[in-house]
Every structure is written in structure tokens, then in C-alpha cells.
# Entry
Amino acid sequence: MHARTLRRLLSPALALVLVWPLGAQTVEVDTVPGRFDFGKMWTFEDAPADYFGETYGFDASPEWFERVRLSVLRVPGCSASFVSAQGLVATNHHCIRGRLTAVSREGESILDDGFYAESREAERRMPDYHTDQLIAIEDVSDEVHAAVDAAATPEARSAARDQAIRGVRERLRRQHGDAHVEVRALYHGGRYSAYVFRRFHDVRLVMAPELEVGFFGGDPDNYTYPRYSLDYAFLRVYDDDGRPYRPEHWLAWSLDGVSEGSTVFVVGNPGSTNRLLTMAQLELSRDLVTPTTVRAFGDRLAEMRAFYDADPEAGEAMNLRQVMFSLSNSMKAWSGRLDALRTPEIMARKRASEAEFLAALAADPTLSARYGDVVDRIAELQTGKRALADEYGAFRLLGSPTASSAIMRRAFSAVESLLARQAGDRNAAESARRRASEVRDLPPELELALLTIRLEEVQRQLGPDNQATRQVLGGRTAAEAAEALLRESALASQAATSRALGQAGLEQDPAVRAAAALFPAYARYATEWNHLSTLESELAAELGRARFEVYGTTIPPDGTSSPRIADGVVLPYEYNGTLAPVYTTFYGMYNRHHGHGGRVDWALPPGWLPAPPGLDLGTPLNFVSTADTFGGNSGSPALTPEREIVGINFDRNIEGLSRDFIYLPERGRNIMVDVRAVTESLRHVYGADRIVEELTAGRTGPGGS
# Structure
């Protein structure tokens, strides 16, 4: 019996009863895997035309998918879309937030005050910026797999894969006139797709609201719903001759929006997910990787907040608010993953899916002979990683440029330079020396706090009796040892570090001695962890090929920052003992402003106070759907079967953070800015009639083309 046939026979009959110990209690979970547990991040190369047509009752033809694909764009870190015949592009405010300072002129603060170009000539080019349009896709699986299968060892297979991918990229660049080409491993290496992009380098800012409304709710409202954020911005793409680019396809701007039960498709570039991990990998993440990361982020974020509260001016000077938001965003995401991994029902469904897959492999002699032991071999590697748990905790975030002690980063690079010099590798020595000299200073109070955290982690993870711990602490507390290192080491400042790196006797510096004491443990850990990860990646690729043999394209691959289309429905959901509405309105935004007394995260800018004449406060502002989105989908258009854009995706709710591992539409929602709110604000707050006319006038019918 073929494995695909077996899967149809097994599902949904296969059920597991799992028992979790919870203190003195046990929880029994009787479950079956869901049809869409692996999500709905469909690829364009395997577009689910039949499923879309059967489910939503429209002709999802190849032409429909092509027009959608050519209407949607990728910008650095985010997604976007063409929304007019003159190259106008819609995306999120937060996707370009970090670029607004670069287009501000003397005396301006576009980030705080917003920007509107009243004419084409006033649109400002964004330096070092680009946007990509996907123009072609090629399945290169056979080419890559042939190269990999000819290699004998994991290292050789990895090298062969890289070489084959380079060859594919060079071939397609020549074929498509020096286009931008990326090759992505789908199903962890079960398949490989080459994506050919037309890259536009002349992208200009047309409109961005004030930070206070583009980021309304700030960090506290991140990953929550109901929301009240106008997280949108408009750009324009220009051609090589400096004229507005005229796309063949674009999305028509909706005038009617959505209502409960509406179908939407969210198109963009979701980042890496982990839905195809084995149970052993998920359990390692639950027990080690995720809780360690949550604690590491949390400890550092607490110290940063304390520093900022004590000295806001210094915090602003070093852009600490943005750093804290980034850390908080990461910590919330990791905390959501941890909650999912500790939810018995979720793990039961994952275990049931793995059992179903293993049964399918066992039923096919050919597949069983080649792939039958892969899951067990991956589990053995997780055992090896568990043995490195102490070192993982001691050195987590060691190289982070924003969340790690500067002196410790310099000291480790200095040790690497000294060791490379002893080995006669002058290039490696110089590279490490340069890394040490480039580490920027942190304010002394913050540096002391971050260094203390690192030494506390070393003491806690390696143990107080560990020889390296004793050597670093010298019988002192972590705080005392940190103070001494910063007082006595030449690596305590960037300027002194540059001088010290070129002098004899560097190995006697207190910080270098501390790093040298820790370096053997770190080097052993890093070498072994990387070796295990290399083996794991090769086995994951084998497992991906096995999964593809069993399931084909009936399940989509994990997110890989490559173009995807996800279907969903606008639906409310239960939360906090009540029901979340499908959309919020401007009434709620003003209520949040007044209810919080104008506190910084909910303070509306002057142009919004009082409410401008003509602004309809009942206009839908943010709405939710069940579409399967993830990081990287920021800026993605939400469109209808008629190819009208009805929203711009900007977040998920906290219940949807489990999507890293499993797609659960009953609890997760993506959150979008309603285009009706965009239009209303453009008209009645910003007086941006030029944009409104371009969005709404001269439409040639649904789909804009």
C-alpha cells in the first residue's frame, strides 16, 4: 500500500491517549491530529487551487494566482503590495520605522511628526532600500538532491548542497538578466525552490503617519487584541529612468471592507516556523532552549528598563527604547512558544501526527528501508544536546550586540585573537582583534548590570565549584566580580580596548583572563553543539524528503521567508471570559487615549485632538481573521477573492503565538489595519486627497488589472 493511500485511511481514525504529570495530578488527553495542524502557508508553486475553489466557491485559476503573486512585494524584513497603476505601495509603518530618520531633513523628525508628500516631486527616496517582486519560480529539487546524494559524509553533503545552490543561482541570474535569485529549502530540505525576483532600488516615501498612531498601544498592546493601531505607510516604486513604475497587476483598494464571515487571503513572506519538528526536538525546545531563552531575555530586559527609568535621557541617546521593544517583542514570542510547548493538548496533537507519519513510513517497505530510523536518530542527537544544557545556559546570548556585556564580548574576541596568533593564523587573529575593537561602549550602569547577569549565569549553570567559575569569581559575588573587572580591565572602554589590543601582555588583562578561563568550556560547547546541529540538519533534510513522499503538497512547508498565500475567515473569538469583536473602531482609539489619561503608549498626537471634523469615529480600524500568518507577514495585504485589498496585516494575538509549532484557527488570529480606516484618516486627518484619489479613482474592475 502506498504511503499516501495509508494516510487517507489512517486520518482521522488514529487517536492517542497521553498522560502528563502535573504535580499530584495527571491529565489525560484523547486527541487526533487536525487537518491543518501544519498550517496554511501555501506556496505559489503548489497553489491550492482546488481547495480554494471548493472551500470558498470561486475560480482560483492559475491566472488568479499569477496576478496576486505579481501584485505582492517583499521589502526588507516585511511584505507589501502594489495598490495603484502608478507603483504606489502599501505596507506597515513599523516596517519602515527604522528608515524614517534617514529621509528626515534638518529640523525635521518624520518618525515623530509623520510625513505626507503633497506632490510626486515631494516624494523622498529612501537610501539603501529596495523592494522585490517575484517574477518566476523553479523547482530545483532534483538538481540539489542529486548533488547531495552523491556525497558521503554530512559535511560533504552540506558542501555539495551549497555548491549546487550557487550553480542554480548563477544559472537563473543569467537567464533572467541579472535578477535577484534565492533558493529556499522547503520541508527542511524535502524540496528546493528557486525564487527569481525583480529588485527595485528606487523606492520613495509617500506617506507615513506619526509614530503615536502608527505604533498606538506601544509595547503593552503588542500581540494583543482588541487593537487600535494605524500601522500603515505608503511608498512608491520608480523605474530606472526615475519615473513611477507601472505594474501590470496591482490590488484594487476596497471601498466596502469586510464583515464577519468574509473570506480573506493574506499574502507575504512568513519567517521560519517549526511545525515539522519531531517530538524529541519539540521536547528539547520545551525543556531547555525556550525556557532558557525566555529567562535570558527577561533578566536583561528588566535591567534595561530599570536603567531607562533612572536616566531616560541617556536611554534615548542610545536608542534604548527601540532595543527594549525588540527584546520585549522577542520575549513575548518566546513566552508564547513556551506556553504552547507546555500545553498538553497541543503536544498530544503533535505526538499523534508523528505517530501517524511513522505508521505511514512503516507501511511502505521502500520508504521504511531508507527513512525508517531517521526520527530515532534525530532523537539521539537531542540527547547529546541535553548533555550541554549547563553550557547552553551559561553562554546564551553571549554574542548579542544589544543584550550582552560589551567587555565580555571584547574579552572573548581578544582570547580568540590570541589563540589564532599562537596557531599562526594571522588572518583569523586580525579578524578577532577587529571584532573586539568594534564593540561599542554601553553606559557604565547598564554595562555593570549586563556583566553581572552573565557572571550569575556562569555561576548558576556551571556551578560554584566549577574551576572556571572559581577562577572568574575569585570568591566574590557576581556583582563584586563584575565591578572589579570594569575597574581594572583595559577592555572596559572601546578606546582603551583599541590601544590594549596592540600591546604586549594582553593575556594578563583581568577581563581576558576571565574569558580565557571560560573559553575552553565555551569552545567545547560551541563545537559540539554545532556538530550536532549539522548532523541534525542533514537528518532533517532526509526527514523532509520522507514527509514529502508521504504527504506531497497536501500540507504546506514550514515558513521560510519565501512567498506564501494563506486563507482565512473574519471571525470573532473568545478571550478573557468574553468575546473579541471582529473589528474595532476609532471610538476605541479615543477611549484608550482618554482612559489612560494620555499616557505615552496611548497618547494621540496633536493633529488628532480633538477629533478632526468629518472623521467618522465608527469607521472600522483593526480587524482579525483566521489566516495563518507569522513574523515576516507584517505589511502583507489581506485581499478578497476579487483581488481587492481590505487590510494590511501587522500582528497576531497572543493566543496565536503557538503558531510556531501548530496552526490552531480556533484560538489564533492575525490582526490587520482596515483599509476603511486608512482612507478615513487620509481624508479627514492628513488631507492626503492625492493618495485617496489614486487609490479609489479610475479602477478598471476587481483586481486592478
